[in-house]
């Protein structure tokens, strides 16, 4: 006896349910793998630190390398674009959460799609009420800085590049280049 037999006695309804189950399984299959497309953007705060694409910091560092500045991050240049340990850990957490809340995701998919999954799953089942503020964060393209002023991404990148070229801790020149 199959799951569809219990809920949908007619063969048409059973086929429809099996098809929906297959679509759900396919959608979840590589969901957590896609987290590896994200990078840590150290210049951002909160959950917005995780976003697709290269961070401003990494873009600045690569720009310095292209200008001939020796930058030592403690890892080879070839690994700079690989997912960080932090992002890889998020992927593992995603897999664990999907396993733990598999029934909840299925319940949402079959019965509660009128609610956004983020609210149904995260607010309703995963996060304690005191930790849901991150779900309201939105990226505006501007970052708050300590003196209360706002800067655009371009202004921040310019300042970051200037700081890195003027700070010997972040960049080291090879004595042979001097």
UniProtKB/TrEMBL annotation:
Extent of Basic and acidic residues compositional bias: 140-151
Compositional bias segments (type: Acidic residues): 152-164
InterPro entries membership: DUF3456
UniProt keywords, alphabetically: Signal
Record's keyword annotation contains Signal: yes
Similarity section: Belongs to the canopy family.
Protein name: DUF3456 domain-containing protein
Source organism per UniProt: Bos mutus
Taxonomic path: Eukaryota, Metazoa, Chordata, Craniata, Vertebrata
């Amino acid at each position: 006896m199959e799951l569809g037999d219990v809920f949908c006695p007619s063969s048409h309804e059973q086929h429809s349910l099996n098809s929906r189950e297959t679509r759900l399984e396919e959608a979840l299959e590589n969901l957590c793998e896609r987290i590896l497309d994200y990078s840590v953007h150290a210049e951002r705060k909160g959950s917005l630190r995780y976003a697709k694409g290269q961070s401003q910091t990494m873009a600045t560092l690569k720009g310095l390398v292209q200008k001939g500045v020796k930058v030592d991050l403690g890892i080879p240049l070839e690994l700079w674009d690989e997912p960080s340990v932090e992002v890889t850990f998020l992927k593992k957490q995603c897999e664990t959460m999907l396993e733990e809340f598999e029934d909840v995701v299925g319940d949402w998919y079959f019965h509660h799609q009128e609610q956004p999954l983020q609210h149904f799953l995260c607010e309703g089942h995963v996060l304690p009420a005191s930790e849901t503020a991150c779900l309201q964060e939105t990226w505006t393209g501007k970052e708050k800085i300590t003196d209360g002023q706002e800067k655009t991404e371009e202004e921040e990148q310019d300042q970051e590049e200037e700081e890195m070229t003027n700070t010997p801790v972040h960049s080291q020149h090879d004595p042979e280049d001097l």
